[in-house]
Design brief:
Blueprint lengths: L11 E6 H14 L4 E2 L1 E2 L1 H5 L3 H11 L3 E4 L2 H7 L8 E4 L8 H7 L2 E4 L2 H14 L3 E6 L11 H8 L8 E7 L11 H15 L6 E2 L3 H4 L9 E2 L22 E13 L4 E2 L5 E2 L4 E6 L16 E4 L2 E6 L7 E4 L13 E5 L5 H7 L4 H6 L6 E5 L11
Parallel strand pairs: 1-19, 2-10, 3-4, 4-5, 5-6, 6-7, 7-8, 8-9
Antiparallel strand pairs: 1-11, 11-14, 11-18, 12-13, 14-17, 15-16, 16-17
Helix pairs in contact: 1-3
This protein binds pyridoxal-5'-phosphate (PLP).
């Protein structure tokens, strides 16, 4: 998982606190009451390492995992206990159904066509095959539409050979508790369940957990909140931060007043100052929309990002520090501590989901803070 260079040569080090992720999962499980708490590990656990996060959560007792793609499930499955389930949110691409069976992973069936493909395989293998069924309750993205459900309810053979392990839907506006779409989707979900064979149900993502008991059903499916993303827009978050990004200074230079910094000469120094060039750029997922915005921290001292974000570097106004205080090889903090994840993302007109899943492959990733089983934490 790690990049080949060691920490001495790393341009930036991403420290991922597995203990904090486990603590967040336990907090969410507590909020979910009698419902079970799954973990969503798609996009490599939102960029933080599914191969490390999955086993750490399994050791804490998590038994249901969701990813987006079949390939993600195939990579994850051998790292998890036998009695854990791995479900693939996208469901099977046409023709890929046998691979789900071969690897012991569950598809989420999102359409009549996906159901038909799965039922055909069950018929061919002459055995019952389990699946999750998703219904669309108002997002128009994935899931069976109400008219498809009515058609299926009228067809006694529709589910032949298919055991429904879970019925699920997904909320579009859960991070806004007052949004009327939440109650509307919940009502449609209840109606949809009546058209399906009886099965456990799941509606809530991270934010949905905080909408209250009515939204918990039998299983909740947090992703973001596990990774420290605030679940409710504008409200204080009860979750622990899990991530720290420390990036190293390549060079510090003195500049006179009126010096242009970076591509496009989009920033000029108003006074003599020092510019620190740091080894992180948009190729590392540091969004270019954060040009001339945001702050890195050297201890308690904020260093404003000035000039455009380049492919491999950003430039900071380090004028607040004494000469020689910041030197090549030293690190500034870009995420973590005073640089809260959600605020950093907002500085680039983005959201923490996008920031996390775009975190670059060039970072040295260091997983700390949890032991699973007898083996030490792999990095
Ligand atoms: C991504 C996803 C989740 C997790 O959502 P968060 O907002 O990250 O908690 C849950 N369910 C589905 C269907 C998803 O696509």
């Amino acid at each position: 998982m790690n990049t080949p260079h060691d920490e001495a040569s790393a341009g930036a080090i991403l420290t991922i606190d597995l203990g904090a992720i486990v603590a967040n999962w336990r907090l969410l499980q507590g909020r979910a009451g009698r419902a079970a708490c799954a973990a969503v590990l798609k996009a490599d656990a939102y960029g933080l390492g599914a191969a490390q996060v999955g086993p750490a959560l399994a050791a804490a007792g998590c038994r249901q995992f969701f990813v987006a793609h079949l390939d993600e499930a195939i990579a994850l499955r051998p790292l998890l206990p036998h009695d854990a389930s791995v479900s693939v949110l996208h469901g099977p691409m046409p023709g890929s159904e046998p691979a789900f069976v071969a690897h012991g992973v569950r598809p989420v069936l999102n359409s009549r066509a996906q159901l038909d493909g799965w039922r055909a395989l069950a018929h061919r293998l002459d055995r019952e095959l389990e699946a999750v069924v998703q219904v669309d309750t108002g997002m128009a993205r994935l899931g069976l539409a109400p008219e498809e459900l009515r058609g299926l309810a009228a067809d006694p053979q529709a589910w032949a050979g298919v055991r429904i392990g879970l019925v699920m839907s997904h909320l579009a506006c859960a991070d806004e508790p007052a949004h009327p779409a939440n109650a509307a989707q919940r009502r449609r979900f209840q109606l949809a369940r009546r058209l399906l064979p009886a099965a456990p149900a799941s509606l809530a993502n991270s934010s949905g957990i905080f909408l209250g008991e009515d939204f918990h059903f039998d299983l909740v499916r947090p992703g973001a909140a596990l990774y420290g993303i605030a679940p409710v827009t504008g409200a204080p978050s009860p979750l622990q931060p899990v991530l720290r990004l420390d990036a190293r200074v390549i060079q510090v230079r003195h500049v006179e007043a009126g010096t242009a910094v970076g591509y496009g000469a989009s920033w000029h120094s108003e006074r003599p100052t020092r510019i620190a060039t740091v080894a992180v750029g948009y190729a590392d997922g540091w969004l270019r929309s954060g040009s001339n915005r945001g702050t890195a921290w050297f201890g308690d001292v904020p260093l404003p990002l000035v000039g455009r974000v380049s492919m491999d570097t950003i430039t900071l106004d380090a004028g607040a520090l004494a000469e020689g205080e910041l030197q090549p090889g030293m690190a500034v903090t870009l995420i973590g501590g005073r640089a809260g994840l959600d605020a950093v993302a907002a500085d680039a007109d983005s959201i923490a989901y996008e920031l996390l899943t775009g975190l670059g492959r060039r970072y040295t990733r260091r997983h700390v803070g949890a032991c699973h089983g007898a083996s030490p934490v792999a990095t």
